[in-house]
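>> received
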Amino acid sequence: MQKVRLNILGLSVSQTQSGAYALVLAEENGDRRIPIIIGPVEAQAIAIQMEGLKPPRPLTHDLIKSIALAFDIVLLEVTIHKLEEGIFFSELLCEMEGKKVRIDSRTSDAIALALRFRCPIYTTEDILLKAGIVLEMNDEHITRPADNEYQPSKTTSTTYEKFTLADLEAALSEAIQHEDYEKASLIRDEIKRRK
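>> returned
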C-alpha cells in the first residue's frame, strides 16, 4: 500500500448537509483534495486545536492525549485506509514499549488526535483516485488554518470592531472560561487583526 501524506487545508460549512462541516485534506505534493463531512462537535474539536485555543478543562481528545502520555503511548500516524459507501475509515498507529498497535477510529476523531499529537496523516493512492478532487485555490468557502476564519455561528468579527483591546482580552478570557470556542475564535481573530 503506497501511502500519500495529507495536510489539513481547512474547515468549511457543508454545502450538502445542514449543520455539518466539510474537513478538507490536501495531498502534500499534489493538487487533489479530500472533503470529509463531519459533525459540529468534531469540527469544533479540530478548529480549537488548529487555532491554538486552550480550553479551561480538557475536551475529549485532550483527555485521550493526556491518558496516552500518562501511559507512554505515542500516536505515530493516522491513516485513512478505506472508503466505503461515502464513509472514510481510519486507523491510529500507536506505540507502547516498542510494540506497535493499530486502532480503528472515526476519521474526524483521528484527525483531531493527529493535530494534538502533531503526527502525520496519510491516505492511499486508491482513496485519492476515488475521492480526490481538485479545488480552486481561491475558493472562498474554505477556511484555511492560517486564515483563522472558522465561523459556524452568525456572529462575525465585525461585532468586536468597537471594543478596546483590553475589552477584547477580557471577552476572550470569558469566552474560553464558558467554553464558547466559536466566540473565542472570533475575538482572537480581531485581536490578531489589530496587532
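>> DSSP finds six helices and eight strands in the chain.
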